[in-house]
Amino acid sequence: xxxxxxxxxxxxxxxxxxxxxxxxxxxxxxxxxxxxxxxxxxxxxxxxxxxxxxxxxxxxxxxxxxxxxxxxxxxxxxxxx
Length: 81
Description:
Radius of gyration: 15 Å
Shape: elongated
Number of helices: 0
Helix content: under 10%
Number of strands: 4
Largest sheet: 4 strands, antiparallel
Strand order of the largest sheet: 2-1-3-4
Order of helices and strands: EEEE
């Protein structure tokens, strides 16, 4: 079982995909962007079965003062039930 995420709904293979634990963080996401994520499995006959899709939106850049040329780091996690 793997999962993929993309910025368009109902994405299929070809988007970013990862094998393994669902606890690994998603990195390099864009601020104020809606992402769609779902699991999938490739069966022994070569067919692919997809799980339900969920969506989430990353937060907007907060209205804080920061130094030009500085950086802003955003951190978060998704939890599957």
